[in-house]
Design a protein that fits this description.
By secondary structure, this protein is of the alpha+beta class. Helix content is 41%, strand content 23%. Strands 1, 2, 3, 4 and 5 form a five-stranded antiparallel beta sheet that branches. A two-stranded parallel ribbon has the order 6-7. Helix 3 crosses helix 8 (132-142).
Length: 211
């Protein structure tokens, strides 16, 4: 019985993983070869990890789709193909083979439950504040010594955040059934409150600050 109680204590101690997901579109010399290359995928994770000391490549997964593959079901690659039609045609005529194109990489970053809460916010901030030009430099730095190169970073999606909680008794924030006159007092750790405030763009009053 006593042991079981200790386990519950551990469970309540904020066992939660933070998962960040997003996508990056890259212009590369050979989209299909890039997506098929383990070296390229490892370099993508390494390059992303350069963005923050708190981010390690081992926290990441990355999935790559070339223009033909990602557009086969939805036709999503047609507009980008149209945008570069003249250049692509000239390139093909000059080189006699299919040259550069766009790949989309879908990534996820899992910050483990035991990690310092500041690590998660540092990773999120680093990704949000990184420009395409900076990311291109980081990815090409990670690709040094290979024959692969990123020609351009053509797009970066917003980072989406999701917290996977293992402690079932941790309260989730729900809208209050009726509007209240004063601010609602919330019982959460300071780090968690700060994260909720950023996500919901509101200010909370902690219970301890009530007179």
């Amino acid at each position: 019985d006593h042991d079981h109680g200790h386990e519950d204590d551990d469970q309540d101690h904020g066992h939660e993983a933070t998962v960040y997901t997003g996508s990056v579109t890259l212009k590369v010399a050979d989209p299909e070869a890039f997506c098929a290359s383990e070296i390229a995928m490892d370099a993508f994770k390494t390059g992303m990890a350069y963005l923050s000391d708190a981010l390690d490549a081992s926290m990441m997964t990355a999935r790559c789709a070339s223009g033909a593959e990602s557009g086969s079901g939805s036709g999503g690659s047609d507009p980008s193909r149209r945008r570069g039609t003249a250049n692509s045609t000239d390139s093909r005529r000059r080189g006699g083979r299919r040259l550069e194109g766009i790949v989309e990489i879908l990534y996820s970053i899992t910050v483990p439950p035991g990690a310092d809460s500041s690590a998660a916010s540092a990773i999120e901030t680093a990704i949000r504040e990184t420009s395409p030009a900076t990311l291109k430099g980081m990815l090409n730095q990670a690709l040094t010594g290979t024959t692969i190169q990123v020609l351009d970073v053509t797009g970066m999606s917003e980072v989406e955040v999701q917290t996977e909680e293992e402690g079932p008794e941790e309260p989730t924030l729900a809208p209050s059934p009726a509007p209240e006159a004063g601010p609602k007092c919330i019982q959460h750790s300071a780090e968690r409150l700060r994260r909720l405030e950023e996500q919901l763009m509101v200010k909370f009053v902690t219970c301890s600050s009530e007179k």
